[in-house]
Amino acid sequence: MDARLRITALLTASTLALALGACGEDGGSAADPTPAGSTTSPTASTSPDETSQPSEEPTSDGSPSEDGGGSETTVPVYFVGDTPQGARLYREFRRVGGDPYVEAARLLTTGDALDADYRSLFPEGAFADVRAEDGAIVVEVADDGWSAPGELSRNGARLAVQQLVYTLQGVAQERLPVRVVDAAGEPAPLFGVTGDLVQAAPLEVLSLVSISGPEEGATVADTFTAGGVASSFEATVPWEVRDSSGKVVVDGFATAEGWMDKLYPWASEVDVSGLEPGTYTFVAMTDDPSGGEGGGPMVDSKTITVE
């Protein structure tokens, strides 16, 4: 599948996921999750545009893998990235084998992000088990190593908890409460937070712009479709292609489907036919009418190879 068809498939899946993003815990709109079990072409990258981000609810693809007759699922994993307004969550879609809850949690806790700009706030360690049970997502801790915030600030602990909530609700494709328990099945704190964990409002914890396609490391040629979700001034999403020196060699903008109250999908055709083959960076950002007075725009970027 060529780059344009691959990214178009990704954006289509993302639009479907958007319908699942309803209200956050404070009644705000959601961003999208694409739960485990949604089906898409095994060769297309299932990257639902975060338009609906969780409340993005889970977003995963249960299509069979073509490799060896095994089965793989596409899961959303939320990592942390820096913005002028502080750390926020960014989402990657990853194909995993095995139980999607367990594998998504493993990627999150190990900080195994494809994008070098992303990281996890979880210290080293792993959960003993993660499963859907009795109308909730049950997360079993292996010990009390994550019971207290440790070196995390209060905001850091809150964002780490939201990493887990957004990721697992994305796998479930449903905004189920996340319940942390010990080996005996008793409620256990996570970074000092107790009780059922629920999703925070997307505009409070998610980046206000993100790229669903092209994916990190994608190879493109001639013209490709870029897209993602954003909440940007007057729905304007500027984008740039930069060379290895950081020079802007192509630029333009997309118009999202809306702004202010939630994250909306955006998409744009990007013409790189005039560029020499090589490695470039595709950058999308929020519009900044203040001219940097508020710290500057939020940004997401992906390394791409132009054939």
TrEMBL record:
<protein>
    <submittedName>
        <fullName>Gmad2 immunoglobulin-like domain-containing protein</fullName>
    </submittedName>
</protein>
<dbReference type="Pfam" id="PF10648">
    <property type="entry name" value="Gmad2"/>
</dbReference>
<dbReference type="Pfam" id="PF10646">
    <property type="entry name" value="Germane"/>
</dbReference>
<feature type="signal peptide">
    <location>
        <begin position="1"/>
        <end position="24"/>
    </location>
</feature>
<feature type="domain" description="GerMN">
    <location>
        <begin position="76"/>
        <end position="171"/>
    </location>
</feature>
<feature type="compositionally biased region" description="Low complexity">
    <location>
        <begin position="29"/>
        <end position="52"/>
    </location>
</feature>
<dbReference type="InterPro" id="IPR019606">
    <property type="entry name" value="GerMN"/>
</dbReference>
<dbReference type="InterPro" id="IPR018911">
    <property type="entry name" value="Gmad2_Ig-like_dom"/>
</dbReference>
<feature type="domain" description="Bacterial spore germination immunoglobulin-like">
    <location>
        <begin position="209"/>
        <end position="293"/>
    </location>
</feature>
<feature type="region of interest" description="Disordered">
    <location>
        <begin position="25"/>
        <end position="78"/>
    </location>
</feature>
<feature type="region of interest" description="Disordered">
    <location>
        <begin position="288"/>
        <end position="307"/>
    </location>
</feature>
<keyword id="KW-0732">Signal</keyword>
